[in-house]
Amino acid sequence: MNLILLGPPGAGKGTQAQFIAKKFNLHQLSTGDILRDEIKNKTVVGKKIEQTIADGDFVVDVIVNNLLIKFITNPSYKNNIILDGYPRNINQAENLEIILNEDNQSINFILFLKVTREIIEKRILGRVTCEKCNKTFNKYLDMDEIERHECGNNYLKKREDDNQEVVITRYDEYMKKTKPVLDFYSPRDYFHEIDGSQKIQAISNKIEQILSV
Predict the structure, then answer these.
(1) For 171, phi and psi rounded to 5 degrees?
(2) CA 181 to CA 200: how far, in whole Å?
(3) What's the pLDDT tens digit per position in 79-90?
(4) CATH class of the 3-115+177-211 domain in this structure
(5) I need a labelling partner for 107 at 20 to 30 A (CA). Which of 80, 81, 151, 202 fits?
């Protein structure tokens, strides 16, 4: 199956995508990870992406689409993909359908994690990610898990764009640009809105219930 996982920055998409990928043997396609890889590799595109993110803006569609096409059309991933945080706007949503149709693929589930800006701020400002295993924690909410983390605390890093000003800008921009996407998808019977303010396990249980039908 192919699945779209939507939600504002800090909604927990990455955590839930990892759960879904492991539980249902799917391949996670995170636009954020793809863009950060370009930055890490210091490519020309990566330098443009880095500046855009630092300004609190979203990367232009043409860059994102070109990077995604390579993944989506890979025969090894066909019909076994989680799109984590994509599409972000209506142009991307329409383009995604074209890409999938041309490759004889379709979307089976769309999950939207709905979370308020107040909760997002608390989550993101405390967020740290393990550079070794890519697992994300919150230094305010997950102190016990951080202490027990098998990779050790030395790999836990805070993203440079996780500051309050950027968080507010990204959330407001996301909700403004994504509303047409939600309107585009919500009438479909495979669209599901989930309360993303719940505990991680409660969200995972709800997702598993939806996908197991």
Answers:
(1) -65, -50
(2) 25
(3) 999 998 789 889
(4) alpha beta
(5) 202
